Amino acid sequence: MRLVFPLLLSTLAASLGAAATAAVPTPISLDQAMADPDWIGTPVETAWWGANGQVYYKQKRIGSPLRDIYQLSGAGAALNSGKQVADAQLGNLDGEQMVYNRAGTRAIVLRNGDLFERDVKSGALVQITRGVSAISDPQYSSDGGSVQFRSGDDWYSWSRLDRLSAPVALLRAAKDPDAKPEADSQRELQLRLIVNLARQKDNREASLARRKEERRLDPTRAPEPIYLGEKVSISGSMLSPDGRWLLFVTQDKGAEKGKLGKLARYVTETGYPEADDERTRVGRNMPVAQTLRLADLRAGTVREIAFDTLPGIAADPLAALRAEQKLPPLKGNRPVRVDAQRDGIAWSADGSRAAVRVRAIDNKDRWIASVDLANAALVPEHRISDMAWVNRRADEFGWLPDNATLWYLSEETGYAHLYTKTGGAPARALTQGNWEVSGVEWTRDGARAYFLCNPQRPGTYEVCASTAKDGGAREVTNLKGVESFALSPDAGKLLVRYSASYLPAQLASVPVAGGKANVLTDTRSDAFKARNWVMPQLVQVPSTHGAAPIWAKLYRPAQLEAGKQYPIVMFAHGAGYLQNVTERYPVYFREQMFHNLLVEQGYIVLDVDYRASMGYGSAWRTAIYRQMGHPELEDFIDGAHWLAAQHQGNLKNVGIYGGSYGGFMSLIALMRAPDVFKSGAALRPVTDWTTYNHEYTANILNTPELDPQAYKISSPIEYAGQLKGNLLIAHGMIDDNVFYQDSVRLSQRLIELKKDNWEMASYPMERHGFVQPEAWYDEYRRIYQLFQRTLK
User: Fold this and answer.
1) Which helix (H) or strand (E) holds 135?
2) 512 alpha carbon, distance to own chain's centre
3) What residue spans of 194-238 are helical by DSSP H?
4) Rounded-to-integer distance, Cα 183 and Cα 110, Å
């Protein structure tokens, strides 16, 4: 069955609620909309500056999973003038993440797992490593004469002068082979009675001490390994640029990992069913507490750094819930983690100062603390607390080049903003307002910061600039849909990845002073550019529950027929904490084309950034704490009533669909508001939050043991008895995010309840995000037929 419908193009009016202008419609089939997206043209995936101002970008090859690298002459290059970098030239390429020295004359290149150094003036490239495993965290030494890097758990330094790479710190989660044996009465008796044994022991210990002293004093020798014992594992480390200090994080190796789930695969190359071990469920594998340690590499000592100085660490925000469930009270400090593998340790460029980001395992507190190196102690610098959960997307921090000023992001005002703090002085807010800062990049001198911002409205993203001296926020770009950016090596230009509703990510350059953007790429196919589309209107739906206005995308005909009522389809994005109502190219680009088809077939569509969505501040994000699905449902119902009042929507024919969290919301809508929502499609849905992972779920609902009521009121399977409408469940059978088991359990529940008008579609070769065009087509054919059958 082939579905072909004409499309409309409407342009967004200057006023949000204004009617769009019609254009000649372009027919498109559902098959085309769900086809391999290569037909659209592959977007610019990543982009970076070369050391001398050339521009590189990566793009998927049409009809292939391979990626190619292209080079442009610079920021002023002509549109689509990029040349593919030949294989023979890849060995001299600058990498995606260049680390420059303070003068900007040299740069570290990490490419294909190997390290290089580029002389910016001459262009000469020197290879530092070849085939060394797991290289990460390259940095310049404080004097600029060496390149430091980590390989596995070990730190090395490469000297430019003698071209020698040598270990600086060797961490070993193992027993020290030269450690003194544990006390034993029989051994002590032998040494007391047998003189020769005692003499041998003394000679052995003296020789060992001498060897260690010689090794410590001889600069040509590698350092002694730091043995930590067999009971811990190493979670991360950072070397001070002066080479003296090593901050590292450990955790208990024997911690309970929880019972792993099994993921069955039925369509396999072997022809036999197979099963993989997958993640554990929420509450069954609590994150393991971590320990912070400081090694003085010069003195050869290791000290543990206590967390006692962190304000509020001994207080239990969950004490009332613990008591309600008759669980024992928390004793001592709350367990914490240091996020060492997520840039959780930051050194100043001269190695004199360090800061760490510490997070309570309950995720109600996050601290940034500097480290008193002499006393191996933490000095609190900033604390952010939230009785719901602290936002991990507002975690950026570091030191300015003055080696004294700490900068960080914080949601303390309710929105993520940029702060600086010097010594014991109060912190300074460089930005403020009901909008958010992310992706901070400082100039090499630390005078100016650039970052993503959305001060115009939540879904409009630009690059803003602020100064360390005066603060403020100046919009540098005027592209509406900035995705990411990079500051040029000379700090004069920005390389910007941007997009729009029907424009996948492209490249442009913009002077840091502002002005017109020079568009560098347009990778869309001629076939895609030739089509006219329904442009979504970004609208604000009033909340009847005291919340801020609900931002949404409205897809509708340019002109509504007088007296006609239009069936309503509502779309729920996934991930919960995700923003889809923006001027960027949507993650859900297939769904956007599907919305075009629905509009042409006489529907109006509303894509809602319900409460919990990203981009609207902490109150919007945490409104769902202990009640997932409740505030969001209110927002969807408000949207349906607004469509009826403002756009001739028919409240008797309301449908909803979405995947992942959107699938969860579709179930919640049909089961908790069965008189509002007539039909819905729940794609890869969470049906019972007790089966989902810990890191996501415990933030919002705590754990099933601690907060069983929150799980009960938030899980759709608990409301299955209230289903009255028409339901489609669709799920990939090898989904390793939301397990297929979720939908199977719900289907069994519906069978036992003798429910009618529901169906389930299973996809044996698809994971959480579908890949095969045939599966996409089959799924959306079913959704379309469901709406045609029940809403028209």
Assistant:
1) strand 135-140
2) 27
3) 195-217
4) 48
Q: Which two tokens stand for residue 18?
A: 């204004």
- In 3D space, the residue among 784, 762, 319 whose CA is nearest the CA of residue 598 turns out to be 784
Candidates 99, 12, 43, 71; CA nearest to 459 is 12
Write out the two tokens for 158.
């490469």
Q: Which residue has the tokens 């262009």?
A: 123
- Between CA 668 and CA 658 the distance in angstroms is 11
Q: What is the DSSP-derived secondary structure letter of residue 461?
A: B
Q: Which two tokens stand for residue 342?
A: 């997520």
**Within its chain, how far is the Cα of 65 from the centroid?**
23
417/158 Cα distance (integer angstroms): 38
* Count of beta carbons in the 10 Å neighbourhood of residue 208: 11
Segment 305-341, tens digit of pLDDT: 999 999 999 999 999 999 999 999 999 999 999 987 7
Estimate the crossing angle of helix 195-217 against helix 185-193, to 10 degrees: 100
Closest Cα partner for 553 from 509, 506, 608, 610?
608
Averaged pLDDT in 10-residue chunks for the chain of 792 residues: 34 34 69 97 97 96 96 96 95 93 96 94 95 91 97 96 94 87 84 86 83 77 90 96 97 81 84 85 89 95 97 97 96 93 92 98 97 98 97 95 98 98 96 98 98 98 98 98 97 98 98 96 96 96 95 96 97 96 98 96 97 97 98 98 98 98 98 98 98 95 97 98 98 96 97 98 97 97 98 96
What is the structure's pLDDT at 24? 54
Q: Pairing between strand 377-385 and 365-372?
A: antiparallel
Longest dimension (CA), the chain: 110
**Sheet containing 726-732: order of strands:** 537-541, 550-555, 604-608, 566-572, 649-659, 679-683, 726-732, 758-763
The terminus-to-terminus CA distance of the chain in angstroms comes to 19
Residue type, 283: G
Residues paired with residue 493 on neighbouring β-strands, in sequence order: 511
648 backbone dihedrals φ, ψ, rounded to 5°? 60, 30
Contact predicate 620/632, CB 8 Å:
no
